[in-house]
Amino acid sequence: MFNRGKIALRSLTLTYLGLLLIIPALVITQDGLRAGVNGLLRQVTQPVAWQALMLTLWTAAVMVVINTIMGTLTAYVLVRYHFPAKVLLNALVDLPLAIPTLVTGVMLVVLYGPQQALGAWLDQTLGWRIIFAPPGIILALLFITFPFVVRTVQPVLLDLDRAQEDAAATLGAGAWTIFRRVTLPPLLAPLTSGALLSFARAIGEFGAIVIVAGNIPVYSQTAAVYVLGEVESENRLGACAMSAVMMVIALGLIGVVELLQRRRDARSEA
Length: 270
Hints:
The structure is a single chain. The protein has about 270 residues and is mainly alpha-helical. Helix content is about 80%, strand content about 0%. The chain has helices at about 1-30, 35-45, 45-80, 85-90, 95-100, 100-110, 115-125, 135-160, 165-170, 175-205, 205-210, 225-230, 235-270. Helix 3 (about 45-80) packs across helix 12 and helix 8 (about 135-160) crosses helix 10. The chain is globular and about 65 Å long.
């Protein structure tokens, strides 16, 4: 009976995953490849499509660099310092996961839009156009993916034994030296995992981007928004080809994250 229960549970889980994840992914990949690999490449390397993909990748890369630094610092402050409203700040970190991304886009337009005081001042005084430009895309991605790095680094910081840090301080090491040589090395694996998850999440972001980017081809049109345009133009092959490429990139990043987590688990068990 026990074996039958295990088999039934395993079958139910695999069936659910197949219907929910595997089959849709295979269908869109097959549709994107219905003209062959060369046909897929032709669709993706068209000027508008290629620029949309490159914009998606470089804005996500800029976001990852900023969020990796600030996410690590935020996790460090939340773990190592006590201050008023710490509980509230810790809860606010998860806010981007709780609200619709369309709301994120609206918030940024209200704050940085060209008709708003701050947005107009940045544009006219410093020449920084935020909304309907790549900086708006980066801001939206920063907001949406901020929790990923914080929540992957925070548990590791909580579990770190501070005896080595205290010993280093006793020997005369400064705060920066202690952080760089003692605290940071154990954080590299979770930090990398959080950064890769942020990148993977950013590739497929649509809701906030469609509000803040303006959907200007070759300038502020990302890959996800390009897919919507191809669907509306009834170019299903182009939409599926770009979708398949985005999915492969995201799955590759998630695979690297899984590998890093397995190596970390193996080290902790050793």
